Amino acid sequence: RAAAMAGWARAVRGLLLDVSGVLYDSGADGGVPIAGSVEAVRRIKASGLKLQFCTNETQATRENFVKKLQGLGFDISVAEVTAPAPAACRLLKERGLRPHLLVHHDLVPEFAEIDKTNPNCVVIGDAAENFTYANLNEAFRVLIGMEKPVLISLGKGRYYKETDGLKLDVGAYMKALEYACDVQAEVVGKPAKRFFESALAEMGVPPEQAIMIGDDIVSDVGGAQRCGMRALQVRTGKYRPSDENHPEVKPDAYVNNLAEAVDIILQQM
Amino acid sequence: RAAAMAGWARAVRGLLLDVSGVLYDSGADGGVPIAGSVEAVRRIKASGLKLQFCTNETQATRENFVKKLQGLGFDISVAEVTAPAPAACRLLKERGLRPHLLVHHDLVPEFAEIDKTNPNCVVIGDAAENFTYANLNEAFRVLIGMEKPVLISLGKGRYYKETDGLKLDVGAYMKALEYACDVQAEVVGKPAKRFFESALAEMGVPPEQAIMIGDDIVSDVGGAQRCGMRALQVRTGKYRPSDENHPEVKPDAYVNNLAEAVDIILQQM
Question: Where found in the cell (chains A, B) (predicted)?
Answer without folding.
Answer: Cytoplasm; Nucleus
